[in-house]
Structures are given as C-alpha cells and as structure tokens.
C-alpha cells in the first residue's frame, strides 16, 4: 500500500508546471520585489565601516597591518587548516599555490572544463598546460571516475612521476573546483592523486563555508585557495587566501606573495623573483567584519536554498541540491532545465525582467586560448552546460 501511495503522489507532483513569469515572480517575492535583483551582491551589515575607519586612522592601509593577521587567524580557526596566507585575490592565490607545487613549463595540470577562467589562467601563468577532464553530474565538480580512467589509459609512473604518454610531460598537479559551493568527491580524488604522485590543489574560491564529510573544502589537498571577490559568499572587495597544513609551504607562500623580501630592519634584499600578491590591510579590515557575519550569512543562504527547493518540487525543472556527504554554502543556487531551448528562453525572460540569472561558464576547452589542450570525454560538462542556470542568491536583508 505505501508503494501505491508514493506513485500517486509522484504523478500529482508531475502535473503542475509553472511558467517562466511565475518563476520570475517567485524570485522577486524572495527579494522583496526589488526592481533589479542581482545574481549575488555583497551585504555590509556589521562592523565594516568601523574597521575601515580604524584602518584608515592607523595609516596602515597597505600590505602591513593587524587586520591581515586577524584575517589569517580567523580563516585557520574556521577551516581547520593549520596555516592561511592572505593574498590580493583568488587568482593570485591559485598562481602561488601552483608555483609551490613546482608547476612549470614542462608540466601539465589536470582540471575541469566547467570552471571560472581564473583556474586555467593561473595554470598558464606557470607556463604549464591544462588537461580538461569531466565533472560529475551530481556535484558539478571533477569526477574521480573520469580522473581514474584518464590516468589509467594515458599515463605511466616513472621515478615517482606521472608521465603523460601522449606528450611525455609530467602531470604535476590536479586542480578540482567545488562548483558554486558544492563539494566534489574530494577524498576519492585525493586518493587517486596520491597513487599517481600528483599534487592536489583545491580551487575552493567558491566554497568558503562548504564541508565534505565534516571537513572544510580546501583542506584535503596539499594546498587550497579561497576568493573574497565582491560576488563571493563574503568579500574583501578583492582578496584571496591560500590554506595549507604544511609549515614550509606556508612560509614559502608568505615569502613569494611579499616580493620574496628577506626580513631586515632596513635593507632591501630579495632572494628570488617574488610577487606583490599580499592582501592590503584595507581589504582585510573589510573582510574581518565580513568574517564575523559568515555563519549568519550561511544560515540565510541555506534558508533561501530551501525556499527554491520547495518551489521547484512540482516542476520538471530540478533544483540542484547539495551532494551526498556534503554541507554546501549554497553560494549560487542552480536549477537544471530539461533542455537547452527552455533554458535559453528562461535566461532571456528573467534577465529582461530585472532578475539576473546566468548560464554556466562557457566550457574552458571551448575558449580560444585553451581549445588546443588535451581533454577527456566531457559528456557531463556538456550536459550541464546546456541545462544549468544560476538564480539570484544574495543574502536576504
Ligand atoms: C572567483 C573565482 C576565482 C578567482 O578569484 P578572484 O578573487 O576573482 O581572483 C578562481 N576560481 C574560481 C572557480 C572562482 O569562482
């Protein structure tokens, strides 16, 4: 009898299907019928002005100052990583993380085609080439299965190095990304990387506040990177962070991001080519206030996600729920359409009506600067590209 009941409910649920204008009205109702509803805008509801004033008054607005230290302490406390190094943005954090993994011109780096362009730019800044492997449909992040198959078919291990049989280059690192804040199957990826002597770097730019099996994203790999850009869960205006458990990597990260200057009371002495990638104190001041609000914002974001989930239950449109074993920050809420035409029509209807929605990024392997790089079968990435739309996800005021 319970089985029959389930079938009836299932059919009843299938019947109802809302129009684009009904969906748009629903989104407007979440955001108090504002005229223009952004995809993700920051909120400044805490000590932002207070700390910024304090920072300006102190005259320490640049790369030295107490707020940078506070940021790093708060990040290690929150994520459980032993060390955090604050950077000018998430892209510079990725660049340095790849350099720390000793990625260079004779190397290749595995990543996913479904990501923001910064992931691949950072790989090319190191003169290495990306290899694009598919994502899983249930996480939108790098697929451990695709990774395993690719490595089995295309590589051999020699002197503890993973050699790509097609190019004879060493695959040095793997950079999965936790798409829209949803953790990928990072423990499986970690295991495969370890077996193949590949350094794991997690692009956790979008996943501050997301946990996999109780552990914060970005702490599974040797290195993790976070972004505090204006559109992320919390913002420094511009900013980023490298997290790691290894002291020597943390020390080197700090050194590389601060022009490789040797500490001295008055001398200017540098021992390698460094970068001006340190987070300015002014940005850190803003970020400290934002970090104080992180848990409150995350709660609110789950609340919004729940509203979307309830709304889309009756539709042939599927709400993208946090994957198994995961607690997502629900940075950007996503829905999956049954086909490309319906998706395109919705994008047009919503954006022309003051509700900002976005398709996923054009796949990296389609961009002119990356289209000649090696890739695997990208069937899931293509499938998601045709169907996924991001909905407004800012914290509600
Ligand atoms: C935002 C983002 C970055 C880059 O961060 P910035 O702070 O904007 O430089 C890198 N990777 C992904 C996946 C991102 O979403």
Can you characterise this structure?
39% of the residues lie in helices and 15% in strands. The strands form four sheets. Strands 1-11-10-7-6-2-3 form a seven-stranded mixed β-sheet, sandwiched between helices. With 397 residues, the chain is of the alpha/beta class. It is globular, with a radius of gyration of 22 Å. Bound molecules: pyridoxal-5'-phosphate (PLP). Residues 89-91, 115-116, 118-119, 177, 203, 205-206, 227, 229, 240 line the site of pyridoxal-5'-phosphate.
Compact summary:
The chain is an alpha/beta fold and 397 residues long. It contains twelve helices and 16 strands. The strands form four sheets. The protein has a seven-stranded mixed beta sheet with strand order 1-11-10-7-6-2-3, sandwiched between helices. A four-stranded antiparallel beta sheet has the order 12-14-16-15. Strands 9-8-13 form a three-stranded antiparallel beta sheet, with no helix packed on it.
Entry keywords:
397 residues; alpha/beta; 7-stranded mixed beta sheet; 4-stranded antiparallel beta sheet; 12 helices; 16 strands; globular; binds pyridoxal-5'-phosphate
Q: Strands across the major sheet, in which order? A: 1-11-10-7-6-2-3
H/E element sequence: HHHHEHEHEHEEEHEEEEEHHEEEHEHE
The whole-angstrom Rg is 22 Å
Q: How many angstroms does the end-to-end distance come to?
A: 46 Å
Ligands and ions found: pyridoxal-5'-phosphate
Overall, the morphology is: globular
Class based on secondary structure composition and strand pairing: alpha/beta
How much is the average pLDDT? Answer: 95
């Amino acid at each position: 009898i319970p089985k029959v009941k389930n079938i009836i409910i299932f059919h009843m649920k299938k019947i109802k299907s809302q129009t684009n204008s009904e969906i748009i009205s629903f989104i407007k109702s979440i955001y108090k019928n504002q005229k223009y509803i952004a995809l993700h805008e920051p909120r400044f509801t805490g000590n932002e002005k207070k700390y910024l004033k304090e920072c300006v008054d102190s005259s320490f607005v640049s790369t030295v100052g107490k707020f940078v230290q506070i940021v790093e302490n708060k990040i290690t406390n929150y994520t459980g990583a032993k060390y955090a190094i604050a950077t000018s943005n998430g892209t510079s954090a990725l660049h340095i993380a790849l350099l720390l993994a000793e990625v260079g011109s004779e190397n290749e780096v595995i990543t996913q085609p479904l990501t923001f362009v910064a992931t691949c730019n950072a790989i090319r800044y190191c003169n290495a080439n990306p290899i694009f492997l598919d994502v899983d449909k249930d996480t939108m992040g790098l697929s451990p299965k695709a990774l395993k198959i690719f490595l089995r078919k295309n590589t051999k291990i020699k002197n503890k190095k993973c050699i790509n049989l097609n190019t004879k280059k060493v695959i040095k690192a793997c950079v999965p990304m936790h798409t829209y804040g949803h953790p990928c199957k990072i423990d499986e990826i970690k295991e495969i990387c370890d077996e193949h002597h590949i350094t794991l770097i997690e692009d956790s730019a979008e996943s501050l506040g997301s946990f996999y099996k109780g552990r914060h994203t970005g702490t599974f790999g040797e290195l993790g990177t976070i972004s505090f850009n204006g559109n992320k869960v919390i913002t420094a205006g511009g900013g980023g962070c490298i997290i790691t458990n290894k002291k020597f990597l943390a020390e080197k990260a700090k050194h590389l991001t601060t022009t490789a200057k040797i500490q001295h009371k008055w001398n200017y002495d540098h021992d390698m080519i460094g970068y001006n990638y340190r987070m300015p104190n002014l940005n850190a001041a803003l970020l400290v206030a934002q970090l104080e609000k992180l848990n409150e914002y995350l709660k609110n974001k789950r609340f919004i996600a729940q509203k979307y989930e309830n709304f889309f239950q009756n539709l042939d449109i599927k709400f993208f729920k946090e994957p198994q074993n995961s607690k997502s920050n629900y940075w950007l809420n996503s829905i999956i359409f049954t086909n490309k035409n319906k998706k395109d029509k919705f994008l047009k209807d919503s954006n022309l009506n003051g509700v900002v929605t976005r398709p996923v990024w054009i796949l990296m392997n389609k961009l002119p600067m990356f289209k000649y790089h090696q890739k695997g079968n990208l069937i899931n990435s293509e499938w998601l590209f045709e169907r996924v739309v991001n909905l407004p996800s800012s914290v509600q005021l």
